[in-house]
Amino acid sequence: MADIPASVAPAHNAIRREDYSAPDWLVPEISLDFTLDPKRTRARSTLTVVRNGAHDRPLRLDGDELTALDVTVDGGEARWSMDGAAVVVEVDGNSAKVEILVELDPAANSKLTGLYASGGILCTQCESEGFRRITFFPDRPDVLSRYRVRMTADASRFPVLLANGNLIASGAEGASHWAEWEDPFPKPSYLFAMVAGDLAANRDHFTTMSGRKVDLAIWVREADLAKTAHAMASLKAAMAWDERVYGREYDLDLFNIVAVDDFNFGAMENKGLNIFNSRYVLADADTATDGDFDAIAGVVAHEYFHNWSGDRVTCRDWFQLSLKEGFTVFRDQSFSADQGSHAVKRIEDVRLLRAAQFPEDSGPLAHPVRPESYIEISNFYTATVYNKGAELIRMFATVLGPEKFRAGTDLYFERHDGTAATCDDFVTALEDASGVDLSAFRIWYSQAGTPRVTARLTHDAATRTARLDLAQSVPPTAGQPDKQPMPIPLRTALIGASSGAEITEERLILLDLPSHSILFENIDEPPLLSINRNFSAPVIIDAARRLGELERLAECDSDPFARYEAIQDLMLAALISAARGQSIDTTPVVAAIGNMLRSDSLDPAYKSEAILLPSESVIGDRMELVDPDAIHGAREQLRAAIGRALSSELGSALFADGFAGDDLSPDAKGGRRLRSIALGLIAAADPSRGAELAKAQFDAADNMTDRQGALAALVSLDAEQRSTALDAFYDRYQGDALVLDKWFGLQAAAQRADTPQAVEALALHKDFTLTNPNRLRALVGSFAMNQWAFHDASGRGYRFLADMIIAADRINPQTAAKLVPPLGRWRRFKPNRAALMRAELERIVSVASVSKDVLEQVSKSLV
């Protein structure tokens, strides 16, 4: 990874992985006593501290916007001072009890880290460095403590008091009441959590594989209780799956989930008390799409799985973040695949990787799965750490096979339970349990960039052989100009061009050299190359397959992902040619999509994924320089051609027998998904007919998936039905914040020339706010991902995004920093747009009060 830019380094010291040293002081026990009030909360902490090793350094406790009201050591006067934001305490012996009193104002905490207020609820978010906003503490993940928490609050205002672990006592004192919680498992401070509020619970229980009963509760506002059933079912399914697949049993008497409206992330895995963004808890057929239901199941599972891969075994330092996040993403992906279609889930995961992580790898913010340095750690909760990290775990699983991989994870959990581990510890456990040397794969943790593999297949009919020539390269990235070859596992088979059958058994080829050749024997018919099956490695493949070969593979490849990949490559070839101004023959693409739609052997969910055209951003990623206008025109041209040529097939998908809105079976979800995609293609070919059909579907819909699918088609059309539907949607859902996010997001994603102006107007809407991360992401984030509209040649999209970043940074730097990357890709565009984007980055960085979160992202983008 690149060194920290000079423009940042003087103001903020960089943290570097190579500088890691063990903590000077450990805190085996901590007691916290809170008197809760929205504007004046008092927090008294009692730390049992132990000197770690032979040294005479004082106790240093991190703080952030805190003032110590009182500090004592062993009950007496303390020798202490402030060093910047930290408290430094002199301790004479090797252990002591240090007590500190601070006062907090949760209602004024707009950063949404530490203790803050959200919709009348007091809640915490401590990952990564939020605990230091609650009390002074050595706030680092390798300081593990047992926590005991007492909470006192007004009983009428905050009738529910929750914290990590198990409830051990409670009582009342006049108008107040109190609760004491104890977590028997040592944990780092980033996993601390507490919640106080007027909440109702959906209660259930789960019996573990050893026969223990665990009480489950999902806490929400009373009015939202009916929307928690899916989250509860997902939690119980995840608990059973983790026992069955990984042998991991839950270890406390209680498991609580709390939904809050204002949250910087999706959810947080605090031990025994998961705090969730409400969008990943609340759902019913009227207000949530099928995609929302799937996301809830995946996030609930992800946070539950962290109980072992993150809580019981945590990360030694923040450079090891992927140790818990990459592994747990792999686990939640596997869980979701087992709940539905493995093929469709794999396609969805790869689409996300290509949309978010591949651009990150090719831009100024490229970094390895295990970064080498940072200014603000919250900037490294990235697609590289999470999604590419998951792909690395998947490669381990592919190379080892299921039995050896499971033995390796068992050993990892056993060996490191109750400790703070590293990525190397995880790999070593896999090696020790399996007997397989995985040392070559460690470079995936330290080398940034997406490998590119060229594959050339030749056939010699006379000798009945085929030869596959492979070569790899890794493009330079910031701070890493020279790359080493990486081990790349490629699941590969040959398909007979005439028979359409596999003419070789699938084999796993490990490409770990710059180039390699493989000879296949007894090849009697011309072969087609099926490579990187099931996306066995996160690489870009250039297989130089002709259109006819891709068309045939799209028809008959026995690997579902490779079949999907063939039709996507067919589309990309046509789209890139058209974007370059070349005339194209759309016949092969239309024929391949027609075959998909007419197939009786493919389910609707798979069909919908296969016929969905690559996004404009993915097309741009495959070109030397991005031309948003040309790409948009090419994609719309192909969509219209498909809509005209396959009107009958698309109509059949659109008018297929429906399913009840609350039917979440794979067939029902697939049918609704295919219906929305078909509607969009019909509208591209005939906007007038598309508007009529979309409005009819909107009016008749008994579920949000169909309603949103219809509105998604309408928002890009120039038709009176558009405004009518938007108004009706707003009128129906203006009191539901999560659904209103959809209303903002759909308009920001509209493929219209006037979208920049519309987004500017929506930013002035009475329901738009910078203080809620969901609303900010819905409007501003969606617009920045709308390649054609955002990159309007006038530069007004860039100005708007910069304005929003500057304004949001004053309120919530973490959320503001996440909006920077679209501007940071300025080098990928032609000079006129590149200059406009760079100018906005320079404007942001020139703001005197810019946070280190935003400063780090912008400065790296300018280097």
Kindly report the CATH topology of the domain at 21-198. Immunoglobulin-like
* Mean pLDDT figure: 97
Instruction: Provide the structure class.
Output: alpha+beta
Query: Major beta sheet, specifics?
Result: 8 strands, mixed
What attributes characterize this protein structure?
28 helices; alpha+beta; Neutral Protease, domain 2; single chain; 863 residues; Immunoglobulin-like; eight-stranded mixed sheet
Structure summary:
With 863 residues, this protein is α+β, with helices and mostly antiparallel strands.
Write up what this structure looks like:
A hairpin with a 5-residue loop joins strand 17 and strand 18 (213-220). The protein is globular, with a radius of gyration of 28 Å. With 863 residues, it is α+β, with helices and mostly antiparallel strands. Helix 9 (547-556) runs antiparallel to helix 10 (560-579) and helix 19 runs antiparallel to helix 20. Helices cover 40% and strands 22% of the residues. The chain starts with 14 loop residues before the first strand and ends with a helix. The chain is built from 28 helices and 31 strands. Among the domains are: 21-198, Sandwich (Immunoglobulin-like), CATH 2.60.40; 316-446, Neutral Protease Domain 2 (Neutral Protease, domain 2); 452-537, Immunoglobulin-like; 734-863, Zincin-like fold (Alpha Horseshoe), CATH 1.25.50.10.
